[in-house]
Every structure is written in structure tokens, then in C-alpha cells.
Design brief:
The complex is a heterodimer of chains A (488) and B (539). With 488 residues, chain A is an alpha/beta fold. Chain A contains 11 helices and 14 strands. In chain A, the strands form 4 sheets. Chain A has a 7-stranded mixed beta sheet with strand order 6-10-3-11-12-4-13, with helices on both faces. In chain A, α5 packs parallel to α8. In chain B, α19 crosses α21. In chain B, β3 and β4 form a beta hairpin. Classes of the chains: A alpha/beta (488), B mainly alpha (539).
Chain lengths: 488, 539
């Protein structure tokens, strides 16, 4: 087994993406009459939303600090906390909305003595829903990425993929994807773990725009099969009971969605660079006891997946992306100096739990901050890649994106208030970045001493993406976009 | 041969129990003469089921024997409470639908690449040839005859494509359309006739589509109600003899007992240098082989599963078990020390799977017994999960894992669950994180006694199982004799066969079927497949 770290991309500007639906090669073609990804006449680049999910952080080390001797940070007078210092180059892009809490998972009536919950925290992070239960596989509603992806494509597909999700340093699909939800009790959306799988689904089928007619022919035939299949699903639906017919209706909708995607012909922008096929022959699910090999695999997987996600955003294949960092297996835990047994823990998951009680111990804290800084470095690397992509009309991809860096726990006891949620990017001018804002408990909620419901942050993201909802998740906790975030 | 006789006997006992009593006899105790009823309410409806990845691939292989396909991808199944074939986990998603279309395209293209094998002697360019092909092929895809509307619809579609794209493309597209049809990907039962019953049976017992003989039996009405008749039982006996049943039963055990955990168990290489990269696979294979032999050569005896002390071992595993006399890497049946081991739960593989990287986990071991053998549902872990103190304290004092757990779980909040989890786990104290037998833990004697107490001094009962045992061997022996455990196996078999969790009424009936199964999980499975629980909704 070998893991190559060589990432080589091939510029493929001005090519046309004709497929990417996981169908066989050359099945689809291009057509000058098909709708392009962006509306005609709209010259401003679209805004992208990226959810960058991560583990817990040391609260007293990640919060912004005051400058010039000031004890507390102010809106503009702040600096990065020790744990987030590697993000210093992105100060102008950062916005710290502190004092938020995941009140939805203990709603109604703030029923627990304190907000918190395992595993409801994971399921409530991006849904803002109050009705969540892992054991019943019940998300209270869609996660914000799925919701926005669906909304911006509801009048016809504008991107080939409404959303894309990929894992970073992770090899447990069910565990990582539990944060995402297509709807209240719906299947968890898929998340790309294997870079090769990601590549095959998203990039493998680029063909030159003037490719021969055979690809067009194949697409035509594919659409004929799909159209006929829909007729057959409808015919059977009428013969089944209600619940079975409903399940077929979902299938039917997904076929129609597939047809719409097949008809979308995305014209590549000048900054679109199609990544080369990952040279990655180390199966992410292969079994090994060699910790160094496991970590090497995670590192390569992470680099490929991040690189491919940036390319997918640059090529406007999607406008809503999720990168999910492993909460349990830090890709570089050995190089951080951790080994099982340290701090009396078997793994970093147990370490995370212990932050609840042992965070003041110097050696324990020093390791934790080092780990947080590694996570911040990884994020900085991703932000830099976004910044390196120029956009037509000026600015770069980070200027036209909003990145939410978030996790579902504060300290390791699944504390769900004062979470390390940070925004990066200018959202195409919609976000006033470079600031620190402290929200704290919203006073209109009786008994609330924990923080401002994070539902309003999710609403803020929706508005930034052009989806002006009034509520998201548990409606009684929603007031609207967080004040002061947007503007400009 | 012994297998077949045993299974035939199991079927025969079902027939006897049902003969003359018809359907209601089982519900009212006829199956075991139990007398008691299961109360009001009907059994639940069957939810629409979709082919699992394994079933899909088996079905494609059956439809196109001898055809070599390029690799094709399918969206992985979602496991719901341990099983990957549950209707609750089969709500369609984007990647499910997309990969079905992609797979159909690859399969149909590969199939049409050799028209002679697909169409026989006739020429694709003739209407007669194409019609003949479709008439023969489509019912195999649908696992039943097509009604006239369906048949003409597919024929029209094929001919339209032939007109536009040519004969071979038209046939390929017809195949594609059949492979994405709801009647193929799902198992709809607008009416539960003999064909639907054949499909239920074949996927429950083979994870594959019905073969020609089973479809023939369906066409001749042998599988229709009243069930318990000879036609169904003959098919059950025949199907059980087939290698496909062996594979499906192995898959049931893999899922029920979460055997994959053996494969992914990781150990700290400094603490356990003996745990080589090949060790998990060898442990896994040994336990799989043990289960296979116990089920098929031992008549599915629960007692044998939980107490048999002959295990297939190779030289590397024999060392782990502290035994000599085994050489090479071929598994040979090996008698274990009966004072150290007894049955599946004391297998090194199971013990290793239920351990952490550094040491064994009594909590995981206890949960495993409670959830998988006693069908006890427990709430999820709390928000705050304290980490167990290390074996050697910062002051250099060592202690047993039991002592540390008892101390760590002493708060009342922990005790609300751990009072019943931990005693089961402590019973396995003699097995370390590799599943090796040991006499002491950190230099201290090992206390394996387990008692689950509810209230002052009264021992907790789980059905007929009294939670008081000396050690893992005693625990295994008592579990093996428990009706509660056999019923629990029945619940898992039911979920595997029906694709959902049993309702209260169904659980009650499963208890009765278990009681009448003479301690055999093989008989129990046969009883479930020929019971009303499996046939519900049949015309």
C-alpha cells in the first residue's frame, strides 16, 4: 500500500461539464441550447456557503482577546485567541459571533438544567430543530446545507449538485454524516469519504465542449429511460397502500431531479481547474493496525477532498459545501505527540471528554491547544485555497463565500453553549467581516441564561445565500438574522 | 446430509403443529400447545422493501449467469439497529437513485455485448426475436408474470427505441428500463399471492431472487394460503439445502452478533505486540466457521452455540488460546480447556471485539449480552461520560478493571443503567483485550461473580433468565437454557426475514414459536418462515 501526497491538477478552463452523475462515461453530451449554470446577464459571481465542521476547542483559548492591554475584545479591537492564532492571515475575513447556544436541542422550556446533549447536539447543530433522536433516526428537519441547496435550485437546477459533502480525516460515514439531514425523518445525505469516489462522482466525466455527438446521443437515451421509468413508478403507485406509495413518490421525485441535473450544462468559468484524478490507492476502509499508515491515509484523503471541494466550488458545480473533520481521529495525532494511554485515555475522543474536568492541568491544556492550533492550520489552508481562486469581476472565491467553522460541543461534556463558531469570508459583500460580536442570552426567552439561539445564525446564512426565511428549525426560537452580521 | 434431515425434521414439526388446526392454531398456541394467546391486535403490515446491495448483486448474477460485468457502484445500505435490510433504512436518496441508473447502464451494456448469449439463435433485428426475449426476460426481472398492460408498455418502449436507435440499442434500453423499474428494485406486494410469497421466501432465505422451481411452485399455487401445507414446506426444505441459504444464515449471524467488530478492533501495538495485522481476520474467520458448523452440523442448537468448546484454530490462534499441538495456517477443530472457555461468548474474537485499544471493556461486554441475547433495550449514554481511570494511577498504584469500574460507576446516575450492564461484563474478567485467558488482573485475583440486583437482595429476572452467575462459563450455560434468549434470537431472525422490528403482538407470538423450537434456532427460523408472522397479508 502506498499513499501518494502528490496532488497535481490539470487546468481545464473553458471546458464544459457534461456529466458528473455517476453514470457511465460518454453517456452525455453538450448542447448549446441548454441552460447555463448562471442566469444570463448576471455578471456578479454567485455566493457560496461552506460549512466546515470540526471538533471541540478550549474555550478560554479560542475566544478573541483584547488588544493594546484592553481586558476584553471589542467589535474591531480584538485579536485571535491562542488556539486560533494560525488564522491570523485571515483576520479581515473573520467574524466571531460569540455567545450563541444550541437551545433548540433542549427545547421546549429549556427542559434540562443546562443545554447539552449527546447525540442530539450533533443532530441539532445544523437543523436547529427541537425534535431530534438518534436512536429513532429522527432529525427534526433538514440541515441548513440541504435546505439552502434545495431552495436555490427549486425553480430549476442552477448547479449540477445542489450540495456536496466530503470528509476530512474520517472513515466512519454514518458517524460523520449524522450531522446532515435531508429532512425530518429522511435518509442522511451521502458524504464523500474516499477521494476517488468524490472524483468519480463530480469530476470524472469532463469532456471537451465540442465532443462528438455520441455523448449527446447517450444522454438522450438516458433521458428516455428515465422518462419511461417515471411512468412505471406512477403506474405502480396507484396500486399500493399509502405509505408504500409515498416511498415511491420520493423515488419518483429523485428521478425527476436526476433528469433535471442531466439537462444542466455548466459552462466552466476561467478560474475553474479540474483536479487530476487522485493517485490514492490506500482504501480508506482498509484494515490496518499501523497507526502511522492510518494517519498518512487520513492526511492524503483530507488534502484530496479539500482540494476537490475547492475545485467544485470554483467550477460552480455546487454552491453549498460541507467539509466534515473527524471528531475522533485527528489526522496528525502521532505527529502531535499523542499516543493511546496519554492522559489515561484510549483515544482523542476520550481526551475531548476529559476537557470537561482536566482542562486546567498544564500538560493537558498544552496538548489541547496544540491540537486546536493544528485544526486552525488546516482551516487556514482551506481558506487560502479559496482565496487563491480569482473571480470574474474582481475578488476571489473567499470574498464571494461565507464559511461557517463550527462544532457541536464546547468543552468535552457535550456542552452546547458558547460554541466556537466563526464566520470567514465576505459573502459577496453581504458579510461585514473582521469583527468580534458578543450576543449572549436573548432576553425574550424565559429562563435563558445560556446564549442566543443558534437558529438565528442559521437564518443569517440562509439570507446571505438569497433565501430570506423568517424561521429555521424550531420556530419559536427564531427572531431573524443575527443583528449586525450582514450589511455592506 | 445431516443438516437436511434436521431441517426437514424442523419443518415436519411445524407441519404437525399446524396440521388440522389451520392458521389460528399457531396464534392460539397450536404451534407449541401453549394455550395462552397473544392478546388483541393484528400483526403489522409489511413495509415496502428495497433490494439491499447484496441482494441486488445476487439478483443480477441470477439474471445474467456467466456475464462478467465491469465494476459498478451502488449506494451503501443503511444499517438500522444492526441490520442492513430494514425498510426503515431504505428511504430513497439521491445517491441511491443515481447509482441504480448508473448500474443499470453498465449491466445492460455488458449484457448486450454478447447478443447471442442474450437472445439465443434469433436475430435482434427481427420483431419476433425481440418480443420473445422480452417475454422471457421481463418476468424474471419482476419475479412474476407481467400483466398485459405492463407487458405491452415495455414492448412499446423497446420498439420505439429500436425505431430511433436501432435494434441492439433498443434492447439495451429495455433492459435498463427493467433494471430501474420499481418492481425490480423494490418488492411491492399489491397482492400477496404465491409469487410475492416466493419472493419473500427467497430473499429471506437466500438473499437472492426465486429460482425457476420456486416460481413454478408459485404458479401452481403451492405457496398460497393456507400455508403450512406441503408445497411451502417442501420448498423450505429444498431451499435450506442450497448453498445460498448457508450464505444468508452466515450473514444473519454476522449482523446479529456484530461480527465485523472483530475486524475493526484496534490494539495498541506497544501493549499488544502479539496482535498482528492478520490477527483480526483469523479471529473473525474462526468464529464464523464455529457458528457455521454449530448451526448446520449441530441443528442450530442454542446450547451448542453458547457452550460448545471445540473451535477451529490455526497455529497463530492456538497460541492466543494458550494451546499447543496446532501447526500451520489451516483451521483444525481444537478442543479448548473447558474450565476456561465455553461457547461463542468466550471466543477470543468476541472478547477482543468488545475491548478497547488498551484494555478490555466490561461495559461493552455487558451491553453485548444484554442487547443481543436478552434483547434488552437501553437508553443512549448520558451527556457526561467519565473516562475510566488508568490501570496504573499517577501514584503508581494498580487496580483491576472491575475495581475501577465499580468506583467510577458508583454515582446513582450511573447506576441507573450500569447496575445491570456491569455484572454481565464482569463475568468475562478472565479474558484480556486480546481474548486471552488470564488468572489475575494487575496482579489481583479476578472476581467474575455477577448478580443484577433490583431492590434489597432480590435478583433481577429477564424473562426466565435469573441474573446471577459465577463466571462467563456459568453465564453462557444459563443463557443457553433460557427461553428468553431463544425468543431474542427469534426477534432478530424475524427482523432479518421481515425487514422491521417486531410489534408487541408479534413478539408474543415469537416467544411461543421459540418455546416450541426445542432450543434450536434452525427450527425457530423454519417456524417463523412458515408462520402467520411471515405470511401476513397473504391472500
Amino acid at each position: 500500500m502506498k499513499a501518494s501526497t502528490r496532488l497535481r491538477d490539470v487546468p481545464f478552463a473553458r471546458r464544459s461539464l457534461i456529466r458528473g452523475l455517476g453514470l457511465t462515461a460518454a453517456s452525455l453530451g453538450t448542447s448549446g441550447t441548454r441552460r447555463t449554470a448562471r442566469a444570463q446577464g448576471d455578471s456578479s459571481p454567485p455566493t457560496r456557503l461552506i460549512l466546515y465542521l470540526d471538533g471541540s476547542h478550549f474555550q478560554d483559548a479560542w475566544r478573541p482577546i483584547g488588544i493594546n492591554g484592553a481586558p476584553m475584545p471589542t467589535e474591531f479591537g480584538w485579536d485571535f485567541g491562542e488556539a486560533h492564532r494560525p488564522l491570523e492571515p485571515f483576520r479581515d475575513y473573520a467574524l466571531y459571533p460569540t455567545g450563541l447556544a444550541m437551545l433548540s436541542i433542549v427545547f421546549p422550556g429549556l427542559r434540562a438544567s443546562q443545554p447539552g446533549g449527546h447525540p442530539e447536539g450533533e443532530m441539532g447543530l445544523l437543523t436547529g430543530a427541537s425534535e431530534v433522536s438518534l436512536t429513532q433516526r429522527l432529525h427534526g428537519g433538514p440541515s441548513i446545507d440541504q435546505f439552502i441547496g434545495k431552495q436555490i435550485n427549486k425553480d430549476g437546477l442552477v448547479t449540477r449538485f445542489p450540495t456536496l459533502a466530503a470528509a476530512v480525516g474520517e472513515n466512519f460515514p454514518a458517524q460523520s454524516a449524522v450531522i446532515l439531514s435531508a429532512g425530518r425523518a429522511q435518509r442522511i445525505p451521502s458524504i464523500h469519504i474516499d477521494p476517488l469516489d468524490f472524483y468519480q462522482k463530480v469530476f470524472a466525466d469532463y469532456l471537451p465542449a465540442n465532443n462528438s455527438g455520441s455523448a449527446d446521443l447517450m444522454r438522450e437515451q438516458q433521458l428516455a429511460v428515465m422518462g419511461f421509468a417515471r411512468d412505471r413508478y406512477r403506474a405502480l403507485q396507484t396500486r399500493l397502500g399509502k405509505s408504500d406509495a409515498e416511498r415511491l413518490a420520493v423515488h419518483l421525485d429523485l428521478i425527476a431531479d436526476l433528469e433535471r441535473r442531466l439537462k444542466v450544462d455548466v459552462k466552466m468559468a476561467g478560474s475553474c481547474v479540474v483536479p487530476s484524478k487522485p493517485n490514492y490507492d490506500t482504501c480508506v476502509t482498509c484494515l490496518t493496525q499501523d497507526r502511522k499508515l492510518i494517519e498518512a491515509r487520513h492526511v492524503v484523503q483530507s488534502e484530496y477532498n479539500v482540494r476537490q471541494m475547492v475545485a467544485a466550488l470554483a467550477c460552480d458545480l455546487t454552491r453549498v459545501a460541507v467539509l466534515n473533520c473527524s471528531p475522533y481521529e485527528h489526522p496528525r495525532q502521532s505527529s502531535l505527540g499523542y499516543k493511546p494511554g496519554d492522559f489515561g485515555t484510549n483515544n482523542l475522543h476520550e481526551y475531548d471528554h476529559l476537557t470537561a474536568t482536566r482542562r486546567a492541568e498544564p500538560a493537558f491544556r498544552a496538548f489541547g491547544i496544540r491540537m486546536n492550533q493544528e485544526r486552525a492550520k488546516a482551516l487556514a489552508n482551506f481558506l487560502q485555497q479559496l482565496k487563491d481562486v480569482p473571480q470574474a469581476g474582481g475578488g476571489n472565491l473567499l470574498d464571494h463565500s461565507v464559511v461557517l467553522w463550527c462544532g457541536h460541543i464546547g468543552y468535552g461534556d457535550h456542552q452546547s453553549w458558547d460554541l466556537p463558531w466563526v464566520l470567514f469570508g465576505k459573502g459577496g459583500g453581504a458579510i461585514k467581516s473582521g469583527r468580534y460580536l458578543n450576543f449572549g442570552p436573548r432576553p425574550d426567552i424565559p429562563g435563558n441564561t445560556w446564549g442566543w439561539p443558534h437558529n438565528d445564525l442559521l437564518i443569517t446564512l440562509a439570507h446571505t445565500m438569497g433565501v430570506p426565511v423568517e424561521t429555521f428549525g424550531e420556530p419559536s426560537l427564531c427572531r431573524g438574522p443575527l443583528p449586525g452580521i450582514r450589511g455592506g | 446430509m445431516r443438516t437436511c434431515q434436521l431441517f426437514a425434521a424442523a419443518i415436519a414439526s411445524v407441519s404437525l403443529a399446524c396440521s388440522g388446526a389451520g392458521d389460528g392454531a399457531e396464534l392460539n398456541g397450536g404451534a407449541g400447545g401453549l394455550g395462552a394467546t397473544c392478546g388483541g391486535g393484528d400483526v403489522d403490515n409489511v413495509d415496502l422493501r428495497r433490494l439491499t446491495v447484496r441482494e441486488y448483486r445476487n439478483t443480477i448474477d441470477a439474471l445474467f449467469p456467466g456475464v462478467a460485468f465491469p465494476p459498478f457502484e451502488l449506494a451503501s445500505d443503511i444499517s438500522v439497529q444492526g441490520f442492513d435490510n430494514q425498510s426503515a433504512g431504505q428511504r430513497p436518496s439521491q445517491d441511491v437513485v443515481q447509482t441504480f441508473f448508473g448500474a443499470a447502464q453498465i449491466i445492460a451494456s455488458a449484457a448486450i455485448a454478447n447478443p447471442g448469449a442474450l437472445l439465443g439463435e434469433c436475430a435482434a433485428e427481427t420483431v419476433d426475436c425481440r418480443e420473445r426475449f422480452l417475454k422471457a426476460f421481463a418476468p424474471r426481472v419482476f419475479r412474476r408474470p407481467l400483466d398485459p398492460e405492463e407487458a405491452s408498455s415495455y414492448l412499446r418502449f423497446m420498439e420505439a427505441q429500436v425505431g430511433t436507435y436501432g435494434a441492439l440499442h433498443g434492447i439495451r434500453m429495455a433492459i435498463e428500463s427493467l433494471l430501474v423499474a420499481p418492481e425490480f428494485l423494490y418488492r411491492p406486494e399489491p397482492q400477496l399471492d404465491g409469487f410475492a410469497m416466493a419472493t419473500r421466501l427467497s430473499y429471506a432465505l437466500w438473499q437472492s431472487p426465486p429460482d425457476t422451481e420456486l416460481l413454478q411452485a408459485a404458479a401452481e399455487g403451492h405457496l398460497s394460503a393456507p400455508v403450512g401445507g406441503n408445497g411451502l414446506n417442501q420448498q423450505l426444505v429444498r431451499m435450506m439445502r442450497d448453498p445460498r441459504a448457508r450464505a444468508a444464515i452466515a450473514d444473519f449471524h454476522r449482523q446479529w452478533l456484530q461480527l465485523d467488530r472483530i475486524l475493526v478492533a484496534q490494539r495498541d501495538s506497544m501493549l499488544f505486540p502479539e496482535y498482528q495485522p492478520a490477527t483480526p481476520r483469523r479471529l473473525y474467520d474462526a468464529t464464523r466457521a464455529f457458528i457455521d458448523q454449530t448451526y448446520w452440523d449441530g441443528g442450530g442448537s442454542l446450547d451448542a452455540l453458547l457452550t460448545r468448546s471445540v473451535v477451529p484454530l490455526d497455529a497463530s490462534l492456538a497460541v492466543l488460546y494458550g494451546l499447543g499441538g496446532v501447526s500451520g495456517d489451516t483451521f483444525v477443530p481444537t478442543q479448548l480447556n473447558v474450565s476456561e472457555r465455553s461457547g461463542l461468548l468466550t471466543h477470543a474474537g468476541i472478547m477482543a471485539a468488545l475491548s478497547g485499544p488498551l484494555e478490555e471493556s466490561p461495559v461493552h461486554r455487558g451491553l453485548f449480552v444484554l442487547e443481543h441475547f436478552l434483547c434488552e433495550g437501553l437508553p443512549p449514554p448520558p451527556m457526561v461520560v467519565p473516562t475510566l481511570p488508568p490501570r496504573i494511577s499517577p501514584e503508581g498504584n494498580s487496580s483491576t478493571v472491575r475495581a475501577r469500574i465499580e468506583k467510577s460507576h458508583s454515582p446513582p446516575a450511573c447506576q441507573s443503567c450500569h447496575f445491570q450492564i456491569d455484572p454481565f461484563g464482569f463475568a468475562f474478567g478472565h479474558y484480556d483485550a486480546l481474548g486471552r485467558y488470564r488468572v489475575t488482573d494487575s496482579g489481583f485475583p479476578i472476581d467474575t461473580r455477577g448478580v443484577v440486583e433490583e431492590g434489597a437482595g432480590s435478583v433481577m429476572m429477564f424473562g426466565d433468565f435469573r441474573a446471577d452467575f459465577k463466571d462467563a462459563i456459568d453465564l453462557s450455560s444459563k443463557l443457553a437454557k433460557s427461553q428468553r434468549v431463544l425468543s431474542c434470537v427469534g426477534e432478530n431472525l424475524f427482523r432479518f426475514a421481515v425487514g422491521r422490528i417486531a410489534s408487541d403482538v408479534e413478539r408474543c407470538e415469537l416467544e411461543k414459536l421459540a418455546l416450541a423450537s426445542n432450543g434450536s434456532t434452525q427450527t425457530l427460523f423454519a417456524r417463523i418462515l412458515s408462520s402467520r408472522l411471515f405470511r401476513q397479508g397473504q391472500l
